[in-house]
Specification:
Elements (H helix, E strand, L loop, with lengths): L17 H16 L1 H14 L2 E2 L2 E2 L5 E4 L1 H7 L1 H38 L5 H54 L4 E4 L13 H11 L24
Helix pairs in contact: 1-2, 3-6, 4-5, 5-6
InterPro entries: Chaperone_Skp, Skp_dom_sf
GO biological process, one term: protein stabilization
Family: Belongs to the Skp family.
Length: 227
């Protein structure tokens, strides 16, 4: 790709688009400040095309993708987030009801303390604390399973993104794809984001999150035959 700032004639001047002028300006500054690094990079690029051990190393043809925007604009990822929010609303309501019930029991124990024998009071306090512990364990399990179910749904979306990105890159003759955050400046023609989003929403318009209540909570070590 070649860029030119002005014609050879004194009065002629071809203006480049602002993004390309910024790209070229950065390259010119880098060449002026670090001439040795630029020469070394050129030497490495030339060496990369030379056979090494009988195998020719291909020259990099680079693409760029904005992973955050892909996930933000994915209808499937949005569907997974919506489903997770609904489960969270249910769990929050359950938590509020259970906390209210335990609060009533605690207040009742406080009022009965003066009328119960120490043994009876201690027995009821132990039972109350057991209910609190069980509630906390159940709540932690629900939250953990919810995050597992959501992670499974998002993983399905991400795996599809990888497959589609590979397809688009292959079609464009690219052999290296970088995240947008890894590329400070790049030609907009290298950006695969819009095409990946369009194909992703066609191939995977939605995703169904597993019901957290149905997730197997056993670990491999606790399953039958596990070691």
């Amino acid at each position: 790709m070649s860029f030119s700032l002005m014609q050879g004639q004194r009065g002629g001047c071809n203006r480049l688009p602002r993004s390309r002028r910024a790209w070229l300006a950065a390259a010119v500054i880098a060449a002026a400040l670090f001439p040795g690094a630029v020469q070394a990079a050129g030497a490495q690029a030339g060496a990369a095309s030379q056979p090494t051990g009988g195998i020719a190393t291909p020259r990099p043809v680079i693409g760029v993708i904005d992973q955050q925007r892909v996930m933000a604009d994915s209808t499937a990822a949005r569907a997974a987030s919506t489903q997770r929010d609904k489960f969270q609303d249910v769990y929050q309501a359950f938590t509020a009801d259970e906390e209210k019930r335990l609060r009533v029991l605690d207040e009742k124990l406080s009022t009965e303390r003066g009328t119960l024998s120490p043994e009876m009071f201690n027995a009821r306090m132990t039972e109350f604390q057991s209910q609190v512990n069980e509630f906390q364990k159940l709540l932690q399990l629900k939250r953990r399973n919810l995050e597992r179910a959501y992670a499974q749904a998002i993983t399905e979306v991400q795996n599809t993104v990888v497959r589609i990105t590979e397809e688009v890159a292959t079609e464009r003759g690219m052999n290296l794809v970088l995240y947008r955050s890894q590329a400070f400046l790049f030609d907009p023609k290298m950006d695969l984001t819009n095409e990946v989003i369009a194909r992703l929403n066609r191939v995977l318009p939605s995703v169904t999150m597993t019901d957290p209540e149905k997730i197997d909570t056993e670990t491999p070590a606790t399953k039958k035959g596990g070691r």
